[in-house]
Amino acid sequence: MTMSWEVLPESELRDFIGVLVRLVETAGALIIFVGAVWAFARFVATVLRGGARGEGFNRIRLTLGRFLVLGLEFQLAGDVLRTAVAPSFTEIGQLAAIAGIRTVLNYFLGREIAGERAELEHERQSPPHQPTEPRPGRPKAP
């Protein structure tokens, strides 16, 4: 007598994981949506206040980039979950392609976020731009 014990049959496990995938992907989509709404609201508020300075827009872009990166990580987690139960070679190939694309996208978003952060720090540490006086011996421009 052979004893076979399964916690969940594979079909039920696939259904359960399908629900988890939808929850994780929905969370990722909501994070991206909230970030986009937040960025748009901040953009409108900045424009209405007349603050067309670059620093305000850079902060908005930086925060939006963070939301995008986090949302894409959730999307990737959903893709990994989808292939958790007996994946086929096709599913593994699709996951590899999706993971590669999202990794490249995250890499470039991360670089841009780091660049924006460095630019904001530089602007914060630099004194405001002062007009320079003409050098001695040169006449002032009319």
Describe the structure.
The protein is elongated and about 70 Å long. Helix 1 (10-48) packs antiparallel against helix 2 and helix 2 runs antiparallel to helix 3 (89-125). The longest helix is centred in the first third of the chain and has 39 residues, at 10-48. It starts with 9 loop residues before the first helix and ends in a 17-residue tail after the last helix. By secondary structure, it is mostly helical. It has helices at 10-48, 54-82, 89-125. The protein is 74% helix and 0% strand. The mean pLDDT is 80. It contains three helices and no strands.
Task: Note the topology.
Elements: H1 10-48, H2 54-82, H3 89-125
Helix pairs in contact: 1-2, 2-3
Characteristic key phrases:
142 residues; 74% helix; mainly alpha
Q: Provide the residue-averaged pLDDT.
A: 80
- Main sheet, how many strands, which sense, barrel? none
Q: Give the amount of beta strand, in percent.
A: under 5%
Q: How many H/I helical runs?
A: 3
Secondary-structure element order, N to C = HHH
